[in-house]
Amino acid sequence: MRFVFGIGSWLLTVAITLVGLAALTFLIGRVVPIDPVLRIVGEKAPQAVYDRVFLELGLDKPLYQQFWEYISALLRGDFGTSFSTTRPVLTDLLDFFPATLELSSLGLALGIVFGVPMGVASAYWHEKWPDHVIRVIGLVGYSVPIFWLGLVGLFVFYFKARLGGRARSG
């Protein structure tokens, strides 16, 4: 009985989290100062075209009804169309997922290869100079903005190490 209660509690937590995440993404999409209709039709579109697309997107409906339709579409597996690429969101997710998986796997592997030995060394030489050096490296690693780290990584691995195929030197 305790096991069933634990599974039920876990499922309820997951459901609440997913609904909260869906509500958050829905609301972010509504408060971002980008007009989705203008993004689709362009700034030089006639007012009649703008109005038609506005109605097609259901933006004339109350917010609670738009949210209900959003949730219903998600439950059917319809993630909508990206305003950026004008392709189905699911297609974009499936296209970019392999690269995301590759990057996250590489990051995990690097974290294990470097992080575990550094943690063991830090514990072995607790409060000695190797421990302090490893702490500083860890602090810098956590403090560096990820976009900057990505640019440096591109520079080092793609341009300098020529690991990106036909790289040109600059």
Question: What is the CA-based Rg, rounded?
Answer: 24 Å
Sketch the topology as an H/E string, one letter per element.
Answer: HHHHHHH
Quick check: average pLDDT?
87
> Overall 3D geometry?
extended
Going by helix content, strand content and strand pairing, the class is: mainly alpha
Can you offer a commentary on this structure?
With 170 residues, the protein is an all-alpha fold. It has 2 domains: 2-78, no CATH class; 93-160. The chain has helices at residues 2-31, 36-41, 47-56, 63-75, 89-124, 129-143, 146-160. The mean pLDDT is 87.
Question: What is the secondary structure topology, with strand pairs?
Answer:
Layout: H1 2-31, H2 36-41, H3 47-56, H4 63-75, H5 89-124, H6 129-143, H7 146-160
Give a quick summary of the entry.
The protein is mostly helical. The chain is 74% helix and 0% strand.
Keywords:
170 residues, mainly alpha, 2 domains, 7 helices, extended
